[in-house]
Amino acid sequence: MTCLVTGATGNVGSLVTQRLIDRGDRPCVFVRDPKKARDLFGDRVEIRVGDLADISSALSGIREIFLLNSGPDLEVRDRAAALAAKAAGVRHLVKLSTLDVSTGVGTGPWHARGEHALRESGVRFTFIRSSAFMSNALSWAHTIKREGVLRTSTGNGKIAFIHPADIADVAVKALTTRAHDGEALVITGPQALSYGEMASRIGAAIGKTIRFEQISDDDARPNFDRAYADALVDIWRAIREGRLATVTDGVEQVLGRRPVTFDQWAEENAGAFRRSGTTRGKRGRSARPPPSLTRPK
Ligand SMILES: NC(=O)c1ccc[n+]([C@@H]2O[C@H](COP(=O)([O-])OP(=O)(O)OC[C@H]3O[C@@H](n4cnc5c(N)ncnc54)[C@H](OP(=O)(O)O)[C@@H]3O)[C@@H](O)[C@H]2O)c1
C-alpha cells in the first residue's frame, strides 16, 4: 500500500506516519513545510507539498489517505479531498473526527458535516470519532509550572481523555486492514476523570501538589479565533454539566488491548510540567504544547 498522511507534522498525524514507517512502509506525507517533515522523518517518507484546500495533485499512486482537517469550515476541505480521492481511485479514506459528532458539542457539528461530505462522495471511509486528547493537558503546563495550579471552568465534570498514541494505533489499523471500512470508531481513554483528578495525577508524576481552581466560562475563554473559542467554551460547559463523561471500549475492540491511562501519559510528559527540562515520551514524541490549543484551527 501507499498511504498519504495529512497533518503529518501535527500531534496525531506524526504518530500515524511513524507507525507506518515502523511497519516497514515508506508513507507519503502531505505538508506545507517540507523542511519540517524532513526534520521529523528524514528520508523515510516521500514528501508531497501543498495545502489541504486541494490535495488532488498529491494523489498519484495513493491507495489510502489519513485525512485530518480542522476548523468550522473543514467540511469544504473534507469534501474536496473525498471527491479528489474518488476521482484518483484511492481505495480508502480514514478521517480523524470527534466523538462529539454524536453529542453535537464543540467541534462536533463541524466534523458531522465533514463526515456527511465523505459519505456523499461514495469513497470508502472510516471515521475515527475520538474523545479529547490527553495532550491537550500540555496547555496547562504554564500555570502548573509557575503557580502549581490548574484553572478551568469544568467544575467536577469528567471526561475520558485519550492518548494520541491510541488514536494513531487505531488509525493505522483502519488504514492497513479492511476490518473497519465503513465504520465510525468511537474511541476514548480508559477512565473519565475530572480536571481536579487529572491535576492530582500530574502532581503525582512530578512529585508536587497541584491545586485545581474553578473559574467562570468568561475567564476560561481563550483569546483567539472566535469560532474555535466558542467551541472550547461549549466543550468545557458540557463537561461541567456531565454531558461528556462517555467511556467506550472502542480502543480495545479495535486493538485488542486496553487504552493508555492518564497516569501513564502524565509520567511520559512529566518534564513538561516541571520548572525546567523536557521529557521524551516513551511513545516517541517529545513534549510540546498541542498546536490545537495554542492557535485557532
Ligand atoms: N484536540 C482534541 O482534543 C481533539 C479531539 C477530537 C478530535 N480532534 C480533531 O483532531 C484534529 C487535530 O489533530 P491534531 O491535534 O493532531 O492536529 P495538530 O497537531 O493541530 O496538527 C495540524 C496538522 O495539520 C496541518 N495543517 C493545518 N492546516 C493545513 C493546511 N491548510 N494545509 C496543509 N496542512 C495543514 C498542520 O501543518 P503545519 O505543521 O504546517 O501547521 C499540522 O500538521 C482536528 O480535526 C480536531 O478537530 C481534536
TrEMBL record:
InterPro entries: Ergot_Alk_Oxidoreductase, NAD(P)-bd_dom, NAD(P)-bd_dom_sf
Region (Disordered): 268-297
Highest rank taxon of the organism: Bacteria
Biased composition (Pro residues): 288-297
NAD(P)-binding domain span: 7-177
Pfam families the record matches: NAD_binding_10
PANTHER family cross-referenced by the UniProt entry: PRESTALK A DIFFERENTIATION PROTEIN A, PTHR43162
The protein, known as: SDR family oxidoreductase
Organism (species): Pendulispora brunnea
